[in-house]
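tool_call: predict_structure(chain=1)
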Amino acid sequence: MQDPNALERLQARIVRCRRCPRLVAHREQAGAPPPPRYAAQRYWARPLPGFGDPRARVLLVGLAPAAHGGNRTGRMFTGDRSGDWLFEALHHAGFASQPTSTERDDGLVLRDAYITATIRCAPPLNKPLPDEIVACEPYLLEELRLLDRVRIVVGLGRIGWQAYLRTRRRLGLSRATRAPVFGHGAATEFEDGVTLLACYHPSQQNTFTGKLTRPMLRGVFLQAREILAS
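tool_result:
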């Protein structure tokens, strides 16, 4: 990264964003007032910037913050069930300093990994509208430009996976060596040496039903570790 402060400036712009009125209203209403279990907490209720190692070789692209997870704590996947699964898997593979994350200042450090999302605000029913995805896309485009050491991208869920493919096309990056197909653990290689790994999203819908198990999730990040080692 040529300018070490460029990523921080981008993160500050993201936090100030109010481009999508529907998302602004939803993120602010989620904690006003908060549900009883979070009654003592003040919600972040703003867009969430990406976070992690600015020299990361592994980039995770998710869907959006959870209304009572990241939207509450101010950090992606922090303070919700999806994060419980994700950070345990990252820690197991050596990409996170601890297996849990409950709040923004809990000491979690990502090593060689950076987490971002397709949408930076919590959408109603976890379903962003197409125009909201388009409005948020420039932030992901700029992150990809700045995180210039990335060699592996993990698409958390089909939307995150598709978002990365779309931004590659926008940036005019090299094509895949074969047609990308989404399926848990599926790898897509690109002519520039980047590998895209597909991963089922660690949402409760997937984890409660057994569609995604802890060994399956750990396996994706162990696969990333093996690719980096090779």
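agent: The helical segments are 6-15, 21-29, 70-73, 81-92, 130-146, 157-171, 204-209, 214-229. Proceeding to next step.
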